[in-house]
Amino acid sequence: MSTQPTPANEPGRVVVGVDGSPSSLAALRWAARVGGALGLELDAVTSWEFPASYGMAGGIGGWDPEVDAGAILASAVDTAFGGPGPAGLRTHVRRGRPAPVLIAASHHAELLVVGSRGHGGFAGLLLGSVSAQCAEHSACPVVVVHGDETDAAGPAPR
């Protein structure tokens, strides 16, 4: 269980990392099924940061990576559930590197769920760097979902 329990008047939460990759869609579906069975609500979290090549200028040309990250998250939810998602789903777009953002979110969760490999993973790895960091440093139990969207048994119930 988490190191900072959820207040008694709030249901417990499952946090799931979403980057739009097939692995993260499988994780989102899995988290919704298991969270629903356990009476836990769902927080889908994605993160963003300016590429290092942007330097101090950041945001040149009107590009807003937070808006792009939000669109990726919304699309992932729509793809995973065939619509807006289950009751109790909250979506969060946070600035920062994925692992630290998810580890911070784990302090208020009963469970953290991540895919085995996101968009940045090398095909030969069994475990991506984000999932490995989360497994090592999370404040709550971590589930790493292997496979991809085609491995999931269709959309999770709403």
From TrEMBL:
Q: Gene3D superfamilies per the record?
A: HUPs (3.40.50.620)
**UspA domain segment(s):** 13-146
Give the CDD domains listed for this entry: USP-like
Lineage: superkingdom: Bacteria
UniProt xrefs under InterPro entries: Rossmann-like_a/b/a_fold (IPR014729), Universal_stress_UspA (IPR006015), UspA (IPR006016)
What PANTHER family does this protein map onto? ADENINE NUCLEOTIDE ALPHA HYDROLASES-LIKE SUPERFAMILY PROTEIN
Q: Which family does it belong to?
A: Belongs to the universal stress protein A family.
By what name is this protein known? Universal stress protein
Question: What is the source species?
Answer: Rhodococcus antarcticus
